[in-house]
Design a protein that fits this description.
six-stranded antiparallel sheet, about 0% helix, elongated, about 100 residues, mainly beta
């Protein structure tokens, strides 16, 4: 699994019958030794996980997700547990799958 998400062209499936969004995404791991400092925040990643900041631009979409305009930006912070490969959305602590 590894300790980081990889950037590139991502496909995000929103749910049954909702379509998909395609985005060019960059990933930056923050807060560790030799990494950019993490910003002050209300929520933080659980202990023994790594925070990854995602930034991207929508390149295409299908189905209902087509209402998201091409060129829109996306941002997210996810927490990675390197021992299990499990990702969580940082603010909501909901499961995030890539």
């Amino acid at each position: 699994m590894g300790g980081n998400l990889l950037g590139g062209l991502w496909r995000i499936d929103w749910g049954t019958g909702m379509g998909s969004t395609f985005a060019k995404v960059t990933v930056t791991q923050t807060g560790g030794a030799g990494q950019p400092a993490d910003e002050p925040e209300t929520f933080s990643c659980p202990r023994d996980t790594n925070e990854n900041e995602l930034e991207g631009t929508v390149t295409d979409s299908t189905g209902t997700a087509s209402s998201i305009p091409i060129g829109d930006t996306l941002q997210a912070e996810v927490c990675l547990d390197p021992s299990t490969g499990t990702y969580q959305d940082e603010p909501l602590r909901t499961k995030f799958r890539v």
